[in-house]
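Readers of this paper often ask what the protein records in our data store actually look like. Nothing more is needed to write down the fold, since each code stands for a local backbone conformation. Below, we set out a record of this kind in full and without editing:
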Amino acid sequence: MIRVAVLLWLAFAGAAAAVQPGEMLTDPALEERARELSRGLRCLVCRNESIDESNADLARDLRVLVRERIAAGDSDAEVIDFVVARYGEYVLLNPTTSGANIVLWIAGPVLLLSGLGIAALYLRRRRSDAPAESLSSDEEARLKALLGD
């Protein structure tokens, strides 16, 4: 039981230590909004880690920026729009399904269905290529003679 607790503590210790006390907002509601927004923004240094979890300097700067925008009275959408306008859509951990991204969202399922269709056609053709006619009696006799039966 103690081992499990230690492993869980180690697993979450890095994420808990990423946000420094000096970065936190004094209002708990605003801080929770900032943490929620930070979980959806990608650290541009660490790639597939949110700025809430990352210890990189750029992630810290982004966390501070998010908190500054929230303290200034911006809505969640305005904060996200500001960060995306500044750093590009790559900063979003969950990209939008509009514009050029729609191609990326649709490409996977389309390619999967295309592959399944091609495989089905191949198997159907292969099955239909089997000989439909049986051997004539002369051919059977000749085959038996060749095989020595």
Residues 138 and 144 are 10 Å apart (CA to CA). The chain has two domains: 2-91, 101-147.
